[in-house]
Structures are given as C-alpha cells and as structure tokens.
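Researcher: I'd like a structural prediction for the single chain below. Treat it as a standalone chain; there are no partners to consider.
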Amino acid sequence: MAKPIDLLQGTLDMLILKAVSLGPLHGYGVLLRIQQISRDRLEIQQGSLYPALYRLEHQGWIASEWGESENKRKAKYYRLTAAGKRRFQTETDKWNRMADVIAGILSTTPEEV
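Model: Treating it as a single chain, here is the predicted structure.
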C-alpha cells in the first residue's frame, strides 16, 4: 500500500467541512471519515484536527453538541451550519479552479510556450 500523502496547506478545513457535510461526527470520527473517503490515501494527525475543529466552530462553519459515542463515551459531535455549507461551496469552487489552472500549467508543452 502506498504511503499516505501529506495535505497541502489550507486543505484541512475544506476536508473537515466535507466530512461533516456527510453527517454529524465526533472529532475522531471526522478523522476516520476523511481517511475513509480518501481511501486511506490521506492521514490526518489528531494534533492538527482538533485545533481545526475549534477554529471552524469559532468561525461559525460547524456547530457541536455533546452526545454518546459508539463505545458509550461522552463525545462532542460536529455538524455543518448554513454558513459552513456556503463556505464549503466557496472553497470547493476555488479548489477546482486552482486545480484546473495547475493541471493546465503542468500539461503545457514546449511548443505552446
């Protein structure tokens, strides 16, 4: 199996918003969901995840409430807010535009210059 790739700076917030857009998750569940939907190609460190969750909640893009996890422990569950849905759409659009620009640059041949 290939080594997980490192995240590009600035993408963690977008990935968290995507993960919680699929349904409410506790913190560790967010980490597992990102690994799952990346087919284990991305690995998020807990030391990066929890500050990002705090930041997104502080910005009003996710909201949290306490609940019980699968193993009967108290856990904070996160869900996407309306502002978070808008932010996620904006970030997704920006990401897709940037990916198109970079793909175009990388596919440029000497004859096109």
